Amino acid sequence: MHQRTTVARPTRRTLLAASAWSVPTIAVAAAAPAYAASATRALTYSTVPTAEITTVGTTKHFHGTLAVMNPNGFATSGLQIVVGLPSAYSTAAPTPLVINGGAAGWTTPLAGVTGGVYTYTFTATTQLAGEATAHVSFDTDLLGTLPSALPPITVTASASNMKQVSASAAPKFVS
Known about the structure:
Blueprint: H1 12-37, E1 44-56, E2 59-69, E3 80-86, E4 98-101, E5 110-114, E6 117-123, E7 133-142, E8 153-159, E9 162-169, E10 172-174
Parallel strand pairs: 1-10
Antiparallel strand pairs: 1-2, 2-7, 3-6, 3-8, 4-7, 5-6, 8-9
């Protein structure tokens, strides 16, 4: 005598129900990285940018300093520091504006003029580690006569994986 064994196969209704439950799971998993990224904090200045102009004879020297801090637990990506020097400070684009210091190395700045401001964009060749601070300074010589009222200089630090921070300061005259 033969005994017949029956194998139960899933019905179409069972397959559709199972696939309907798996779709929300995928959607929730895909939404998690966006939520995690929203907890990223902005770069900060642990030392507010300062600027000063010294004059020796007819030479006018511009010097600025800042300390930018990464408050996150991961390194920056695409770190840049942009210095905006109003054209009232110099009759021609001060070249070169040099940036020094910090753990990051810096590229030669991309310079441009927008709305009467010489803009210098420095890109870090080495990124700023998580919870680290870069102390940097920038220097150049200015050309022409300085204005009697010194307009503020702006400094913006940004990274592609976190929010930027900007500040402005009117330089002090140091003779």
